[in-house]
Design goal:
Blueprint: H1 19-71, E1 83-86, E2 90-94, E3 102-108, E4 111-116, E5 121-126, E6 129-137, E7 153-161, E8 166-174
Antiparallel strand pairs: 1-2, 2-3, 3-4, 4-5, 6-7, 7-8
Length: about 180
């Protein structure tokens, strides 16, 4: 007999990954990617909504300031303010400038327009409105004013829509003091 020992080869580990390790790694990476995509997507959506809301609110703020400036310029005639029309959708008056220009604020949803008689110019002051109304008050700030003689405050309530949400704003303007 020969002295040959039977040679058993030990399994040689190959430098690589097993199928199970690869599958597990790909699964974990997929889960991490899905979570990351959701977080990134919700961040982008939040940014877009915030940007749209800020744009709508800044448009409302600009319009409110312009309305205040225009309404404060109502001319006083000695006994009352020179108001031509006082309704829930229209406020028309003569301002204090030298040419006695008629200023017309009119609501035709979804727009609020501002028009002047001299020069004859009309422009949309605000668009995207879902509601807008003028209210008129006497000196106590609670009783409704029905004529220019007892008018002291003009209030504008409006709601603007940015496509996904409504934003309401109220502006109350005290007319210039009667001399």
């Amino acid at each position: 007999m020969s002295n040959c020992k039977s040679i058993r080869r030990s399994p040689v580990k190959s430098p690589g990954f097993t199928l199970i390790e690869m599958t597990l790694t790909i699964t974990v990476m997929g889960i991490i990617a899905a979570i990351g995509a959701q977080i990134l997507g919700s961040g982008i959506t939040s940014y877009t909504k915030t940007e749209t809301a800020v744009s709508a609110l800044s448009k409302a703020g600009f319009a409110a300031e312009r309305l205040k400036r225009e309404i404060r310029a109502v001319a006083y005639t000695g006994s009352n303010y020179n108001v031509l029309t006082m309704s829930s959708t229209r406020f028309q008056f003569v301002n204090t400038n030298a040419s006695a220009t008629t200023v017309d604020l009119q609501v035709t949803l979804p727009n609020l327009t501002l028009a002047y008689s001299s020069p004859n110019v009309s422009a949309t002051l605000m668009n995207g409105l879902t509601a807008c109304a003028f209210s008129y008050y006497q000196k106590d700030g609670q009783t409704g004013a029905t004529t220019a003689a007892n008018l002291v405050y003009v209030e504008i309530n409006f709601t603007i829509n940015d496509g996904s949400a409504n934003y309401s704003r109220r502006v109350r303007v005290a007319l210039r003091e009667k001399p």
